[in-house]
Amino acid sequence: MKKWILWTSLATLLFALAVHLAVVAYIPYKAMDTVMNVRFRELPRNAMNFSPPTTVESRNVPRPSPDLLYSVCIYDVSKKPLLITCPLPQGYWSASFYADNTDNFFAINDMQAKSDPVKLLLVGKNSAISEAGDAITVRAQSDKGLVLIRMLVSDDKSLPALIDVQQKAACRQLD
Amino acid sequence: MKKPVKIIIAILIVLIVGGAIGYWTAMWAYDPLYKAGAVKNGPWMTNLTVGSREAGLHIKAVIAMTSLLALTKSEAVYYQAEVDDSGKPLSTKCVYRIEGKELDARWWSITLYGEDNFLIPNEKNIYSYNMDTVNKNSDGSYSIYLSSTPREQNWLPSGSGDQKIALLLRLYNPGPTVYANPGGIELPHIVKEACR
After folding, report:
1. Which residues in chain A are closer than 8 Å to B127, comparing Cβ atoms?
2. With contacts defined as CB-CB under 8 Å, which chain B residues touch A145?
3. Residue from B27, B67, B119 whose CB has the most chain A CBs within 10 Å, to mutate
4. How big, in percent rounded to 5, are the helix, strand and coil portions of chain A?
5. Residue A19's CB: how many other CB atoms inside 10 A?
């Protein structure tokens, strides 16, 4: 009986550890899936979507910054690569690429950009295409994910000019 | 008890009890585990692996739940505070004075969030202060007042509700001192003035 209790307890603890690790590992995938396919379900894929200035109504992603103007492109590069083109504003700007497990696998800001507009080519994990003109090539960590563009809103007066720049950004599949 | 019965009971115990313990610890322990491994700096804490492939399972889980789409340290470093300088949880019942100086970053901001990790409604629509919007003294220092009742300047409204709150300090394009000593650089103090 003692042996039975010992082995059952040991197996229970090992199974508990396995379940713990599996659930914790699953949380980031679930969070990204919820954002991309539930909260942003109405947004077109492989296209730039322009968020309005952050307010108390901004509840798609936790802890939004009221000091930033966001644009998002939800991508699927399993079949075709994506060309992202963004003109630069006066202040801070960045484009950050997220995999389906929340990893931020690439980021570039306005000070690192070598051209204006910035051109970024996002290719699939196994894509044979590796360049398109003068665009910076980024190889996706996962075929599905999202690109987030951030622009600093230093004050309300700068907002109209920033929105004008924001609306000129594009995200489209290459044929 | 016969051997087959013992085996069936053992399997049931492993699946039900083990599964429940595993699930419960996953849902409730990832946050304490993240905090235990974070770099502390007064009331603030950070983790420089946030957003990266190198981040551990528990860090990724916490970020997914509270700060999804965070940037890696090369672009931004995030410090969060859920307590004041004395270590007591931040609450809308209290008035706090956030005292700081210029920070080693291209740009910084301090934003207030409610328990649900979203902005707190207020009639002034003020949710944060940044290096451009905060009113500074002649020496570059500043005091931000976190309270439910209005202040003349640098007022960060905590709303009319009764809840725990959190501050997030964002340092965009931080300077080398932040990377060299994230637990030792001078960050804003969070001083409790009074509670109702």
Report:
1. 54, 56, 66
2. none
3. B119
4. 30, 30, 40
5. 20
Token pair for B96:
């706090």
Is A68 buried (19+), middle (13-18) or exposed (0-12) by CB count in 10 A?
Answer: buried
Q: Tell whether pTM > 0.80.
A: yes
pLDDT for res B19: 93
Query: How much is the ipTM here?
Result: 0.86
Cβ count within 10 A of residue A80: 16
Short-list B124, B132, B121, B118, CA closest to B166:
B118
Res A14: pLDDT: 95
CA distance B158 to chain A (A): 13
3-state secondary structure of B32: helix
**pLDDT at residue number B107:** 94
For residue B34, pLDDT over 80 is answered with no
The first and second tokens of residue B65, run together, are 């739940």
- Summarised one tens digit per residue, pLDDT across range B125-169 is 999 999 999 999 999 999 999 999 999 899 999 988 789 999 999
Nearest to B94 by CA among B168, B143, B162: B162
Report how far residue B143's alpha carbon sits from residue B166's, in angstroms, rounded to the nearest whole number: 17
Q: Residue B165's closest chain A neighbor by CA?
A: A63
Q: Closest partner residue to B65 among A22, A31, A152, by Cβ?
A: A31
pLDDT greater than 80 at residue B29: no
Q: Is the dihedral of CA B79, B80, B83, B87 positive or negative?
A: negative
